[in-house]
Amino acid sequence: MSKVEAIQYGDRKVYAVAAFNRGVAEWLQRLPTVWVEGEVTELRRNARWQSVFFTLKDPNDGACLGVTIARNRFDALRLDLAEGERVHVFGRPELFEARGDFRMRALSIERFGLGDHLAALERLKKKLAAEGVFERKRPLPFLPRRIGLVTGNDAAAKKDVLTTISSRFPAARIVVAETLVQGPLAANAMIEALRAIATAPEVDVVVLSRGGGSFEDLLPFSDEKLVRTIATCPVPVVSAVGHEQDNPLCDFAADVRASTPTAAARLVVPDAAELLARLDRTRSGLARGARGMVDRRRERLVQVHDRLRRAPSLAVERKRARLEHAAGRLRALSPRATLERGYAIVRTHDEIVRTTSAVSSGDELEVEVADGRFGARVE
Amino acid sequence: MSTEPTFEDAQRELEQIVERLERGEAGLDEAIKLWERGEELYKLCVGRLDAAHGRIEELARRAESARP
Fold first, then answer.
1. Which residues from chain A sit within 8 angstroms of residue B54, using beta carbons?
2. The CATH classification of domain A7-112, taken from the options 2.40.50.140, 2.60.40.10, 3.40.50.300, 1.10.10.410
3. Distance CA A111, CA A82 (A)
4. B45 touching A, CB under 8 A?
5. Do A314 and B21 touch (CB under 8 A)?
6. pLDDT tier for residue B1 given thresholds of 50, 70 and 90
7. What residues of A are in contact with residue B28 (Cβ under 8 Å)?
8. What pLDDT, on a 0 to 100 scale, did the predictor assign at position A324?
9. Is A301 on the interface with B (CB under 8 A)?
10. Which of A75, A155, A225, A287 is the most exposed place for a label (fewest CB within 10 A)?
11. Is pLDDT above 60 for A1?
12. Of B17, B49, B52, the CB nearest to A308
């Protein structure tokens, strides 16, 4: 390592710019090689340049780091990097002495793979869950005054939501905010759109909608800042992103998760036709109930009236039966029963003969036996 | 009684009369009187029910025609 020479002005030691830069550069070279993670932006590659340049950006707070890599080394990696792609860069810090620019000299670059994305998402999910970001679940309004729709300008998802809402509830009012839903700028664009629409007058619910896409396409919907914005949104949020099997983190932070944009539309407005039908059923039930009440009373009245109709004749019959009973007993007590045992009643001049002195020879007699009467004469 | 009894009161009285007649407690003359009273109460109750029924049908018709 060469010694950096200073110029002496009295007791002041002064360095030339080049010497200062060289000194710092040499000092930096002693730092170890490390891996750094970030998103690739401003990639510049020119066939006449010795190096390839790009800026590595921190997706969370936008901090930047310039990176250079030898062009032949870069080409050999065959990465075909696109703007906004996440990478791991292996290298060491470096100072470009001629300009005093601090940067990273890359020795290798690896694309941030699916597994890395999944692991990072899982870590973020655990962290947010531990903070309670996924816990707030508010019920959706029964009938929102206005519905906010944050969506991409891709026709399908937007059209699905709009047509489903207006077919279910034609009077629904919808405010649409079209925004980027894909790529490195999408998360911030969606955050802005969501904030604006959630505070727009009369908006009572917000639907965040995007059609299906690849895992990478849906990554902005797992952006930490977006997820936090959803979790603190002043009105309930319905998340309808991708397909059933996709689970971007915005789904967990939303108040309700819908499997598709169409399902989200069904959640935010009631079906007007079904509501009317239910109301009709309730009303006919009301009339049925009132009629039933009158009918039951009438039935009871008819029954008691039948009993009333029968009651007087019943009373007469009962008295008649008592009368018959008395008559029967009366008859049993009459002398007729005695006659049947062989006795006879003898009368003369309509007087019952009780003694022999009551009759004299030649008197006409009337004899009554059990089955009738006959005449006789005293001898 | 100067005021007309309510439907429920009339129904109750009618039922009491019927029970009394059915038990045969009343004398013949009284039974006839009770029966007459019972018929009177029955007519009153039927009149009330007819009125209620008419009002319900009227309301149902009106609700039906007001359907959007």
1. none
2. 2.40.50.140
3. 10
4. yes
5. yes
6. very low
7. 315-316, 319
8. 78
9. yes
10. A155
11. no
12. B17
